[in-house]
Amino acid sequence: MLKRFELEKHGVSVGSEVLAGLTTFATMAYILFLNPVILGDAGMDRGAVLIATALAAGIGSILMGLIANLPFALAPGMGMNAYFTYTVVKQMGIPWQTALAAVFLDGVIFLILSLLPFRSRMIEDIPYNIKLSAAAAIGLFIAFIGFKNAGLIQGNPVTLVEMGSVYTPANGLMIFGLMLMAALLQRKVKGALLWGMLAVTALGFVVPGPEGHPLVSTAQMSWPSVADLSKGLFKLDFAGAEKLGFAMIVFTFTFVSLFDTAGTFVGLATKLGWISREKPIFKEAPRGLIAESFAIMIGALLGTSTTTTYIESASGIAQGGRTGLTAVTAGLCFCLGIVLAPLATLIPVQATSPVLILVGCFMLEPVLKLELDDLTEALPAFLTLLLVPLTFNIANGLIWGIVSFTMLKLATGRIREIKPTMWILTILCLISLSRAH
Questions:
Q1: C-alpha to C-alpha distances, 318 to 2, 62, 78, 246, 314, nearest whole angstrom
Q2: What domain range is 325 assigned to?
Q3: pLDDT in tens, 270-302
Q4: Crossing angle, helix 324-335 and helix 46-63, to 10 degrees?
Q5: What total number of domains does the chain contain?
Q6: What is the pTM assigned to this prediction?
Q7: HEC assignment per residue over 223-284
Q8: pLDDT on residue 70
Q9: Residue 231 forms part of a structural domain
Q10: Most buried among 7, 22, 101, 134, by the most CB within 10 A?
């Protein structure tokens, strides 16, 4: 079994891969509790969604590891679950059972596009400058999430965002964790991120939160019942597919996921050093895209929104993860999510936020390779870099980068530099933008 992962070829050991998988799981574990809250607003049973989330993430990550040998973990995606609940179900009035059917069809379409193989060609043909900026943009996005989760960045009706107070015990603990992990990483301590998270979690038992209670308490631990899964299992309603807007729902799920995955794959592969100007694609990509397609369909059958590759996989990569054993380890942790759920609730955002910020720092390196002398290359890269964190959406950044690239090449008479795939993507982007509001 271990031969499948080619550990020696990648210069890693079982121990380092397992450690990377544990780190990835720890930074992704929040989805076990956020996804039930969001999909619960759609009328779904929260206990059922929690179990479905754990199994979808577990099975999807294991498939990615075994089929593609990639250190990329999967789980129901944030953003897509919000679209599922607040747009499709609550605004459009589509029953959640029918929305699950749309997610399943999204997976079927993904599989067809992966086998053609349109999706891997899409990743290959996206201009290198946009790939570099997408990788760096995801880093900024991850760091933004870290600051937001910790409360150090918060909303402001005038300036949109503002700095939160650093003079609170909770934020003080987060900053301590950030400095501790950075110091451990600089000293080349193995498992630095994981040890840092454990240290912050331990201190959370004594550091008070906003209401004066400790940030971490065993009182918040709870166990869902396995029987709850039946409330969402195989509840897809294809008979309701004739409802007005169903085709556009499937299109939106597919379109956003298409760009979200492309950005994530490019960002993670760039961090691994597998993508360059001379090598626009990596050989494991087609199998990884197929694995994700199956994960989407399995997740829908289990009763959860679109399962996708997670940018938080970068935390495991930063910890040294290089093979599918990292993803399998994270997947096994998720499969045990029903049992581990009470323990995962003990990890406060003050422990995970520093990891996200540090990973964001690591992923900023590609900006050093950006070509800025040619504005037809520089502006699309800049728009991608800027709009991913500002719109809180990877797909939005790629859409603006791709559309501006094609328009600028046309305006400057350099039409031959636009590859056929880019024409298709530009048309799809324009359709998406026209329906954005």
A1: 22, 20, 22, 40, 6
A2: 2-222+247-434
A3: 888 887 777 777 788 889 999 999 999 999 999
A4: 160
A5: 1
A6: 0.75
A7: CCCHHHHHHCCCCCCHHHHHCCCHHHHHHHHHHHHHHHHHHHHHHHHHHHCCCCCCCCCCCC
A8: 95
A9: no
A10: 134
